[in-house]
Amino acid sequence: MLNRILSNRIIPNVLTQDEVDQLKGSVANSLNNFFVPGYGQSVTNFAMPKNILDKFIYYATSITGISGLEIEYQFARYQLSKDAHGNIVNPKLTPHYDDRFSSPRFTIDYQIESNTSWPLEVEGKSFSLKDNQALTFSGTNQIHWRPIKQFLPGEYVDMLFCHFYPKDSNISDILKSDRDMNSLKKYFLDIYKNEDMASNYRSNMIE
Ligand SMILES: [Fe+2]
After folding, report:
1. Which CATH superfamily is domain 9-206 in?
2. Residue 195 Cα, ligand 1 centroid: separation in angstroms?
3. Across the chain, which distance is largest between two alpha carbons, in Å?
4. What distance in angstroms lies between residue 40's CA and the mean position of ligand 1's atoms?
5. CA of 205 to the centre of ligand 1 (A)
6. What is the pLDDT of residues 94-125, one digit of tens each?
7. pTM: predicted TM-score of the whole model, two decimal places
């Protein structure tokens, strides 16, 4: 079961076109939204239609083999934005694990729509999603990030993040300790920072 939770696979053709339209409509009727300056990410809370909710739970159940899963979800848009001080913020997702959760989560990251490519990396493996595809991983148990990318004006990536946990049983035995996760995070963060320095160096050479 552990392997299934940690296995990273791309789900193709996640929703039908009608469901995609329905999902976009419910995101547009948002409950609230806020900007996360550290990631250059606009997050929206909204009410997902039950048929789509059931479909994501169905995917999660069939992949993990765990029944009775609860779901938490959020919509996020990545694009060039302005922060509260009027500074332009470029999206950036540094290596991290989802430490805001107190118990393990199985994660489905669904790409609703984008007009640019920005791969997801999970512990050194790169996954390029197309629209209507999703990647499975464990946000709490696997370090994940996206490579450094300079967004151009008008470029965007719209994502739906789904986090699953079992209602009854518990899978807390799979949760690595914060100490383990933090040392793993540091390992990938060091590689990421070197790449950041190299890309700054390259762009300075071009200017
Ligand atoms: Fe995350």
Report:
1. q2cbj1_9rhob like domain (2.60.120.620)
2. 20
3. 58
4. 14
5. 33
6. 999 999 888 889 999 999 999 999 999 999 89
7. 0.90
